[in-house]
Amino acid sequence: MASWGERLAGVRGVLLDISGVLYDGSEDGGVPIPGSVEAVARLKRSQLKVRFCTNDSQKSRGDLVGLLRRHGFDISESEVTAPAPAASLILKERGLRPHLLVQDGVLSEFDQIDTSNPNCVVIADAGESFSYQNMNKAFRVLMELESPVLISLGKGRYYKETSGLMLDVGAYMKALEYACGIKAEVVGKPSPEYFQSALKEMGVEAHEAIMIGDDIVGDVGGAQQCGMRALQVRTGKFRPSDERHPDVKADGYVDNLAEAVDLLLQHADK
Amino acid sequence: MASWGERLAGVRGVLLDISGVLYDGSEDGGVPIPGSVEAVARLKRSQLKVRFCTNDSQKSRGDLVGLLRRHGFDISESEVTAPAPAASLILKERGLRPHLLVQDGVLSEFDQIDTSNPNCVVIADAGESFSYQNMNKAFRVLMELESPVLISLGKGRYYKETSGLMLDVGAYMKALEYACGIKAEVVGKPSPEYFQSALKEMGVEAHEAIMIGDDIVGDVGGAQQCGMRALQVRTGKFRPSDERHPDVKADGYVDNLAEAVDLLLQHADK
């Protein structure tokens, strides 16, 4: 494999995944991954541009940033690309009235959206709200539409909390896709539109940007599809088999964000 | 299209789906579909062989037969092919110890099976038991296995109860398949092994048998794949668009079981 110097040459902007890279979530707020608070601070003091690109759809962007700030991270709402606000914009543009299968914590992102007489379903990482009753309700809304529209905030398979692996929205998206015989529109990684909006907000071209994430498919594969480079951290939902993934090969594997930032500060933009 | 006489010539055995053909289920026992009680009785008085072939995995075979008998149907346990007893046999043969994601009502079918230290997951139509917590538990069992085995009792997309459409086990099977990156083994329609076991129990060859069901894919398509003929009834989960299905064309569409039996008694085995 090429040297780190070659692999990181010309990087001007860094997209950071949040869950599994900055911190491991849990019901009571989670814990920062060792070294990540300092790594973000060092990155932000450097000449590199930084943006956070999350698929978290359990919390509003404000709540997520508040939580991370309490953990000591230097982060503000305007630096975060998140699926719920992105979906809210799309709904407004297309005049869609969603039935929301989401957690209460993220409802505020849809405050401005008309949800009467729904003509689509928006599904997020609803956690405990993925009851049979709630799934069946969303299913029936879709089956009553002539052209069912299902918008999924990400399509992650699972993520890691301190208590263990947790099913993510992608599993439930697949359930509704199969039951209704439809294909969901994904707002979130690895959708190219989503990465491109994050790049635009950061003001960096794809070939000058690198994604750092714990998801070999959603983060690494998705970013590479957009022409970016991507590192996988061995934290969060990383599993050793990821390094032998049949389809996706990261531009590098690092133990954690701290190691990624060490390498970037040493080799990027040279 | 050929005449009914040509389409039904040489039929010696009839496989009957239960839910949506004999009765529409509901939480309080459901209601027989008009004419079906008499249709089953007429069929059983004829020279045709009859077997019931269900994907119902919510109830034990004994409970299902008890319910149908209370509705007036002439049916006994030995005439029913059902996925839970079929799966129970497979588990025994292969020495598999399942984690069961099923409703309490069907647990008795697995009485003889060791469920300690599970090395596979069996998923049935668990209804309200498809909570996030239960799904996550099954998911974690699979993720901890080196070669995860997921056995699904059917793969139906949805069925119809008197209260409306209900998500079926197939949707949740797809969720686990996607989350774990695996493929489930299906015990139930449209699995060819399942149809073949029903034919064997009836003592009729595929080309002499006809399936009557409300599911264009699971009943009609599955039976035709096995070399049987198949009629779709316009009851249960039937939707008008089924008659324009892109891949599956029934050998005939009838309003209900009563009409199917009229035609069979007139034209079969001639």
UniProtKB/TrEMBL annotation, chains A, B:
Needed cofactors: Mg(2+)
Predominant location category: cytoplasm
Matches recorded under Pfam families: Hydrolase_6 (PF13344), Hydrolase_like (PF13242)
Compartments reported by the entry: Cytoplasm; Nucleus
Superkingdom as given in the UniProt entry: Eukaryota
InterPro entries to which the protein is assigned, alphabetical: HAD-like_sf (IPR036412), HAD-SF_hydro_IA (IPR006439), HAD-SF_hydro_IIA (IPR006357), HAD_sf (IPR023214), LHPP/HDHD2 (IPR006355)
Biological processes annotated in GO: phosphate-containing compound metabolic process
Enzyme Commission no: 3.6.1.1
Alphabetic keyword roster: Cytoplasm, Hydrolase, Magnesium, Metal-binding, Nucleus
GO cellular component entries: cytosol; nuclear speck
One annotated GO molecular function: protein homodimerization activity
Family as reported in the entry's similarity comment: Belongs to the HAD-like hydrolase superfamily.
Function recorded in the entry: Phosphatase that hydrolyzes imidodiphosphate, 3-phosphohistidine and 6-phospholysine. Has broad substrate specificity and can also hydrolyze inorganic diphosphate, but with lower efficiency.
Matching NCBIfam families: HAD-SF-IA-v1 (TIGR01549), HAD-SF-IIA (TIGR01460), HAD-SF-IIA-hyp3 (TIGR01458)
Protein name (Swiss-Prot/TrEMBL): Phospholysine phosphohistidine inorganic pyrophosphate phosphatase
Taxonomic source organism: Neovison vison
Lineage: Eukaryota, Metazoa, Chordata, Craniata, Vertebrata
